[in-house]
Specification:
With 79 residues, the chain is mostly helical. Helix content is 62%, strand content 0%. It has five helices and no strands. The longest helix is centred in the first third of the chain and has 18 residues. The protein is globular, with a radius of gyration of 12 Å.
């Protein structure tokens, strides 16, 4: 997978994680603050748990919190 495809895939996964935890991007990123949004995107891109994330997201469930392996869990779960 080239860099552009990986970026697209990971950002889609980030969106799915937000939807699965019933959070909006603006809630999780501090009402759209660019620095926090950028940090979330970078966390997702650098995540070493992408396989676990894909498996978790395929369960297609609504969860109270993001899973502990998610590098954005703290940002997502504080809402």
């Amino acid at each position: 997978m080239d860099t552009i495809d990986q970026l697209d895939h990971r950002l889609k996964m980030m969106g799915k994680m937000l939807r699965a935890t019933e959070r909006s991007l603006s809630e999780a990123s501090g009402l759209g603050k660019l620095g926090k949004l950028n940090a979330m995107a970078n966390n997702c891109l650098e995540c070493q748990s992408s396989k676990a994330c894909e498996t978790w997201l395929k369960q297609d469930q609504i969860a109270v919190n993001a899973p502990s392996f998610c590098p954005n869990a703290e940002l997502i779960n504080r809402q």
